[in-house]
């Protein structure tokens, strides 16, 4: 299964970029992972390959803990789908049209997170659940 993180806007902060790149590199040991920066959410949607499950990050989406995200990833790994795409909007979030087309809406927190920080949190959590699936010691209960 492939992971695709589609982000509206560029990550300009070199410190945040280094952190995201670190987690994406770590994720690559478990699943091919790509972060794609696009101009707007419609463009992002067009870059998602066919048959990928589309998960839109939205403050009004379902809230999961890490164990629930792990269960979701495990289900997707055996679903037969080629991958999962996570859409992260810009400063104003994702358009209602894009949200309606997504298969799932996921909220990372009840807190309002800047989109650039949401990218880092998502990549870290995806890495965390992959280590949990493999039984590696990164996650502590």
In total, the number of domains comes to: 1
Number of helices: 5
The structural class is alpha/beta
Tell me the distance between the termini: 26 Å
Helical content stands at 40-55%
In CATH, the topology is named: Alpha/beta knot
How much strand content do the residues show?
15-25%
Number of strands: 5
Shape: globular
**Order of helical and strand elements:** EHEHEHEHEH
Low-pLDDT sequence parts? none
CATH architecture: 3-Layer(aba) Sandwich
Sheet bearing the most strands, described? 5 strands, parallel
| Spatial arrangement of strands, main beta sheet | 2-1-4-3-5
Q: Tell me the Rg in angstroms.
A: 14 Å
Task: Summarize, please.
The chain is of the alpha/beta class.
Walk me through the topology.
Elements: E1 2-8, H1 14-27, E2 33-38, H2 41-46, E3 53-63, H3 66-77, E4 83-88, H4 96-101, E5 104-107, H5 115-133
Parallel strand pairs: 1-2, 1-4, 3-4, 3-5
């Amino acid at each position: 299964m492939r992971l695709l993180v589609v982000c509206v806007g560029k990550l300009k902060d070199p410190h945040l970029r280094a952190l995201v790149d670190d987690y994406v590199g770590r994720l690559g040991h478990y699943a091919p992972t790509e972060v794609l920066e696009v101009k707007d959410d419609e463009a992002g949607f067009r870059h998602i390959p066919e048959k990928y499950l589309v998960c839109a990050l939205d403050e009004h989406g379902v809230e999961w803990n890490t164990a629930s995200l792990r269960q979701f990833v495990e289900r997707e790994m055996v679903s037969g789908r080629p991958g999962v795409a996570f859409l992260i909007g810009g400063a104003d979030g994702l358009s209602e049209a894009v949200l309606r087309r997504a298969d799932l809406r996921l909220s990372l927190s009840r807190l309002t997170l800047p989109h650039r920080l949401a990218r880092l949190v998502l990549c870290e959590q995806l890495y965390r659940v992959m280590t949990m699936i493999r039984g590696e010691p990164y996650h502590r209960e």
